[in-house]
Design brief:
- With 147 residues, the protein is of the alpha+beta class.
- The chain is elongated, with a radius of gyration of 19 Å.
- The chain has five helices and six strands; from the N terminus they run E-E-E-E-E-H-H-E-H-H-H.
- It has two domains: 33 residues; 97 residues.
Length: 147
């Protein structure tokens, strides 16, 4: 593993821990050149389904896009990074167990909305207001009444 600070190719594993679920391994590493420490995470790479967008185009599933969308909706809300990570893990688990090779972006957006509703109602409303592209205030009011 190359050091992210100095680029040196020789690093040493100082500590290794498995996550509570056992699906991720966290490793603390130390660079043998600059002596700085950093953390790496190791997880099994399982092919995620492609995402079919509304216009019919297909893109690879991107965990970072999900994280960015959720983080934006959760901005200035009392939600921890661990809660966001757990939500993303649940979304990915649903995608993996679905057995689908392709998933519509609307279904993926629905999974994100379900997780946001579970962890923070304000973030859920924020995300839904953009995701559903409300035409008028009445549609927005219906969403709030549903909560």
């Amino acid at each position: 593993m190359r050091c992210p600070f100095c680029g040196h190719a020789d690093t040493q594993v100082v500590e290794t821990r498995a996550s509570d679920e056992g699906d991720v391994i966290r490793r603390r590493r130390r660079c043998t050149d600059c002596d700085k420490r950093f953390t790496t995470y190791e997880r099994a790479e399982i092919a995620m389904p492609s995402v079919v967008k509304k216009d019919g185009s297909r893109v690879d599933y991107d965990r970072q896009k999900i994280r960015a969308s959720m983080t934006l909706a959760l901005r200035k809300r009392p939600v921890t990074i661990e809660q966001i990570d757990s939500s993303i893990e649940r979304i990915e688990e649903k995608l993996r167990t679905s057995g689908l090779k392709e998933v519509p972006s609307t279904k993926l957006g629905g999974l994100v909305m379900r997780e946001l509703k579970r962890i923070d109602k304000v973030a859920y409303v924020r995300f839904a207001s953009v995701y559903r592209s409300f035409e008028d205030v009445a549609e927005f009011g219906e969403l709030i009444r549903d909560i």
